[in-house]
Amino acid sequence: MGVKNIQGNELREKIKIFLDGNFDLIQKDFEGLEPVQRVTFYERILKYAVPVLKNIEIEADVKETIPTREERDAYLKSVEDKLKEDLNL
Question: First CA to last CA across the chain, in angstroms?
Fold first, then answer.
């Protein structure tokens, strides 16, 4: 595991040196691309600068249902009747 890690680190460092040393050339080449090619290139490298959002799944176990209009009206009527009864109206 240690050897792979060292080799990976060395490779990353070499890639970084290569990119740093060729940045101006890459920039010039980028400017010479057709618009569609520029967008494609930009899209491909963007993931290295901006974290990619992960999809998440949400599962819900809903046990309540939304009352129908009739059920809601009946409930409100019962509350109204109870209030009238309690207030002797």
Answer: 83
The alpha helices in 1-89, defined as continuous H runs, are 2-21, 23-31, 35-46, 69-86
Q: How many domains does the chain have?
A: 1
Q: Is the pTM of this model over 0.70?
A: no
Q: How far apart are CA 26 and CA 19, in angstroms?
A: 8
What is d(CA 65, CA 7) in angstroms, rounded to the nearest whole number? 59
Residue range(s) defining the domain that contains residue 27: 2-86
Q: How many residues does the chain have?
A: 89
* pLDDT tens profile 2-52: 566 778 889 889 988 998 999 999 999 999 999 999 999 999 888 888 877
Collapsed DSSP state (helix, strand, coil) of residue 64? coil
